Amino acid sequence: MNNRSIFRLARSQQAIFKMELYNLSGYQFYFGGITRLRGDISLERIARAAEHVRNTQDIFRIGFINKALHGQQTESEALATEATEMEWFGIRHDRPRAEVEKADFSEYPNPKEEFECWVERQLLVKEDLSLTPVKIFAVRFQPDQSGWFLKAHHAALDGIGVAILQSHLIKELEQENPDSAIKQTESFLLSNAEEEQNYEYSRRFERDAAYWQGIFGETSPTDVRKISRRYPIGDYRGAEPRSMRIEAAVSQSQNEILFRFENSGGSIFRLFFTAVAYTQMVIEDSNCVLLQAPIGNRWSREEKQTISMGVAPVLVPVFRQDGQTAADCYQILQKHLQKALIHSRYAPATRWGELASPDWKQIIPVFGVSYQTGKFQKTSSYTETIIEHRQAVESLFATIHLHDRFADGYLAIEADFRRIWSPEQCHAFLQTVLNYAVDIAVEVMTQEHTDHHPEEHYTSDECSAEPIGVHLLKAFECYTDNALFRLNGENSAFTYHEGLQWMHRFSMRLHDMHTDNKPVLILGRRTPETVLAYLACLIKNVTVVPVCPTTTPTERLLTIIRNSGASLCIYTEAEQNLAETLNLPLLRISLHKGDSAQKRIIQEQIASTLYSSTSYSEIQHTSCNPAYILYTSGSTGEPKGIAISSVALANYALAAKAAYAAEIPFNTPLFTSFGFDLTQTAILVPVLSGGFIQPHEQDIRDNPELLHTLLTDESLTGVKCTPSHLSLLIEHGISTRQHPLTFVVGGENLPASLVNKALDCLPSGSEIINEYGPTEATVGCCIYSVNSIYSINNDSASIEEEKNAPALITPIGTALGKAEISIRDRWGQIMPRGFRGEIWISGPVLADGYLNDSVQTEAKFVFSADKQCRWYRTGDLGVQDEQGIFHCIGRIDDEFKVRGHRIHPVEIEKAVEDVLAQFGQSEDHNRQLKALKLVIDEAAGIAGYETIALCSNRPIPHESHQFQNKLKEKIAESWLPNLYCTVQPWPINANGKVDIALLTSVAETYRRSFIDVAQCVLTDKQAADKKTQQQAENYNLPLWLDEEFLRPVWPQSVDLTVSFLELGGDSIKAIRLVALLAKRGVKLEIKELLTLTALGAVLEAACAEQPVGCTTDAAVLEKPLKSEDVS
């Protein structure tokens, strides 16, 4: 070897070796070309043709070596050198060094699978680049199929070079003349490097450089800091570049559209370049992407026919603005791609480090698009020819290959993806690219919008439905003799006939008192008369504002009255005092006792059971009023009213009846709040199916024994509740129940471990239905049914492991009834399956909007581009899997749910600020507050619990009784923070906003440290008490009341010297603890736990009052002396 055989390489080839831009030094990248010949051709004949091409093509005499810039080095020394310090060179040998190898797969049981595995291994095998950067394999694929497999390093050949080499092989096989003189061809490698060197000293280089620096340089007009990505694909560059070939299925109709598009003058490359960019922007929910176009640098006629590497990687930014469609991007890209082609010799991808600003360098190119044309021969020596390209992924996440075969009437689309996504995700991405390309082609050709997503369209006939009052009235007429209410302690049931009589008289009184068209407020006690009053209002189309009188603070209640314009309050005797403080006309109701007018309702016999004063046509005519207005947490700090129409409520109720009570009536207990929209299911589905309602007036939190009663009643067929309720119900034992139950669970995420635990306890045939839906979509719009142990996708998992599988959240399933569900980006574009985005809901179940808030209504309820479909943007983060099942995986904003209560942190923060102002701390303008939800991890199959933390940068007097009492006046008890932590410095992200992730981490760390410190104090005190036992105070507790007994409530160790509330106690945990103690015969009131008394003292007092027959052995738990400053 001498120096004259060594030559310089072009910059593009150097970039492939160094990969300094992509941080991939050490990997070699290969193209693979497969040529399949159908027919009886011997392997020897295939090999001879390959040897002749090898001997005649200069590319087989070329190798690559590297040398350090500071001097000559050996190969091993050079490989150990930093990539940026090495330079690669080409070396020409006097003869080809690569042997033509043979491979026969025809004898294998599965030849195709064996060949695929062999190809994958070959593309990962590192070759000696100084000798064999290009190799040819003669292959027998199957008994009747032979051909070649080409393996070429990217620096030697690009896709066009591989295609040209394949053409030479086919031509050689046809002409096959071993005795012909060998005619060698000149390589393009040397001339390309020399021409590039001349180019870099030309004026054109300066113009090209100025163009790209104007786009990516420091003076770029684009404010890169405004480029946003909600779900970035991320930095993939350090992963092993193993590829996965994915092919798109182009239908005949799609192929015809694309063929007409090209014949009409459209650009197929720009079409798919746009479609790839737009799809990436959709799945990342971004407004800009950087795409690579490997534009061929073959300018002369000779160069275009030369087997070599001649690609200039060009990076092109693609933007979209609000309202711009994929077709808009296609039109805008016309000018940009034309200029990119003109200035492509500069190859900005290989000069990225020189020209790009620091902001642009943070954007990692993800996708590339290649476009291959050429008329490949379809026959060779009377055989069919099939040509494929394979490649290990180079510097990108994926490359989409377009094979223009329109000369033969079709377009082929395939892609090489890194093995990071699942095959299903890759297919979904590629199919979405194809769909966008077809949509663009149609829109460009017709110059009008054509929406090719039929799920967005429904006609008014499809969504029309009678108002809920019509269906309710029909149900009362149909199920006259059925029991409507099953009342505790009474032998006789209250029938539909009696209910209709009651509602008739109530409606007459309501008509006398409710003379305007304003809403009425119902203080929703869970009593038969309250349910009947609500149903009567629905039938008479009187808008109801339902609120829970026991959990709604008075100040919040007055805000709701003021906002809704309620003109009448309907209440029961138990709420007399509260009702009289609301400054509204009052209508008291009673079922069996009360004022004389109500007594007459029950006593008077009505001959006709028909609702004589109301006809179906009248209900339909007057159904313009909302059925109800439900108030949820608002982002302004005030509750917001959501108006649900009578038709929307009917659509939900009918769909729920079909899903939950298709075969038997839905007999259900009623124990959830009237101010909670999931309660609608427990009222409407029983009535529409002819079932009964079993109302429980007493709050479930005050009487945990009620839980046991609910499950032992064999006549019940269904229960509507939250996951927290389900957890409590299961804990109270249902082993004696014989008949199956259907649980419809909603309001919050449903852990799979809880589903498994419930099904393990419930009788055979029971079912858990996960119902998802925001209030704005009328109770529920998506369901997922589980009737067997939920699989954790682990074949080796035991039944016990399946039951206790942690961390899995039950899917929300598929759309219920006429609702429509879609996963979208912020621009309203549909996400491919497998990619996360915001959950959007459409259909006749949508709310009318937010009461007295047109701005929020317009922001959250949006129309599709064709204005034919209205969608609600939930703010929930979701994904649709490959089977079409939807999953809810969180929020895109900071709103959260705790035990089914939808809470916006601003409302808690505002309430705290108002209380602090009353304490004289309103002048601290630098105070920062943030309410967060913490989820305490589940353990040992026990469902985790949720709690609220309030973080601040200034101490808050949360230990003050006065502070807590004032706060309870403003927000519900279930919203009260259980943890207060002071965070300094206040965490701020790069955008100047509070860093929620970091703040949550700090709060979680604080919570753990609080427990750890408490445990350490207890341990230290116990050691001290061994020396001074006479000074120690003792808790006398039964032996069974230990940490294991308390584990269902607190998975971690428990410090008995602090209060229940200081341990993060809430109403749900209180119910659990009271119920566990009740099983041991220890009675404890929940209110006794909700104090600042040490938990050990509370338990000691309760156990001391234990009945004589229930006494057990006692253990002595030592406790430290209380500090003087603890109140």
Automatic annotation (TrEMBL):
<dbReference type="Pfam" id="PF00550">
    <property type="entry name" value="PP-binding"/>
</dbReference>
<dbReference type="InterPro" id="IPR001242">
    <property type="entry name" value="Condensation_dom"/>
</dbReference>
<dbReference type="InterPro" id="IPR009081">
    <property type="entry name" value="PP-bd_ACP"/>
</dbReference>
<keyword id="KW-0596">Phosphopantetheine</keyword>
<dbReference type="GO" id="GO:0031177">
    <property type="term" value="F:phosphopantetheine binding"/>
</dbReference>
<dbReference type="Pfam" id="PF00668">
    <property type="entry name" value="Condensation"/>
</dbReference>
<dbReference type="InterPro" id="IPR045851">
    <property type="entry name" value="AMP-bd_C_sf"/>
</dbReference>
<dbReference type="InterPro" id="IPR023213">
    <property type="entry name" value="CAT-like_dom_sf"/>
</dbReference>
<dbReference type="Pfam" id="PF00501">
    <property type="entry name" value="AMP-binding"/>
</dbReference>
<dbReference type="GO" id="GO:0043041">
    <property type="term" value="P:amino acid activation for nonribosomal peptide biosynthetic process"/>
</dbReference>
<dbReference type="GO" id="GO:0003824">
    <property type="term" value="F:catalytic activity"/>
</dbReference>
<feature type="domain" description="Carrier">
    <location>
        <begin position="1052"/>
        <end position="1100"/>
    </location>
</feature>
<feature type="domain" description="Condensation">
    <location>
        <begin position="9"/>
        <end position="347"/>
    </location>
</feature>
<dbReference type="InterPro" id="IPR006162">
    <property type="entry name" value="Ppantetheine_attach_site"/>
</dbReference>
<keyword id="KW-0597">Phosphoprotein</keyword>
<protein>
    <submittedName>
        <fullName>Amino acid adenylation domain-containing protein</fullName>
    </submittedName>
</protein>
<dbReference type="GO" id="GO:0005737">
    <property type="term" value="C:cytoplasm"/>
</dbReference>
<dbReference type="InterPro" id="IPR020845">
    <property type="entry name" value="AMP-binding_CS"/>
</dbReference>
<dbReference type="InterPro" id="IPR042099">
    <property type="entry name" value="ANL_N_sf"/>
</dbReference>
<feature type="domain" description="AMP-dependent synthetase/ligase">
    <location>
        <begin position="486"/>
        <end position="851"/>
    </location>
</feature>
<dbReference type="InterPro" id="IPR000873">
    <property type="entry name" value="AMP-dep_synth/lig_dom"/>
</dbReference>
<dbReference type="GO" id="GO:0044550">
    <property type="term" value="P:secondary metabolite biosynthetic process"/>
</dbReference>
<dbReference type="InterPro" id="IPR036736">
    <property type="entry name" value="ACP-like_sf"/>
</dbReference>
